[in-house]
Amino acid sequence: MICEWCEVSHATHATNTVYWELPDGRKVICITETPCVRCVACGMEYQTEETARAIEDQLFLIDTNELNKQLTYKELMYKERILKRNYFNFS
């Protein structure tokens, strides 16, 4: 896999911990075991555009009042949705 930062083919799939601001800006949550790309050449760890969009969409679709300060990526993705789709995504 090619790293998007240094463009060297030493990147691999991994997981890491990220901190994400809720859409309403009330608080930040810690999401552990989040899929990421890790590059051994430059040391960068980053989320793909798809993973970032999945997190953003899920945070718009669930009741964020029920979220703990920390949860795993899978726990976040399995939260019951109160909307069927993200009506705020205009891309």
Automatic annotation (TrEMBL):
InterPro entries: CHP03829_YokU, Znf_MqsA-type. Signal peptide: none annotated. Coiled coil: none annotated. This is YokU family protein.
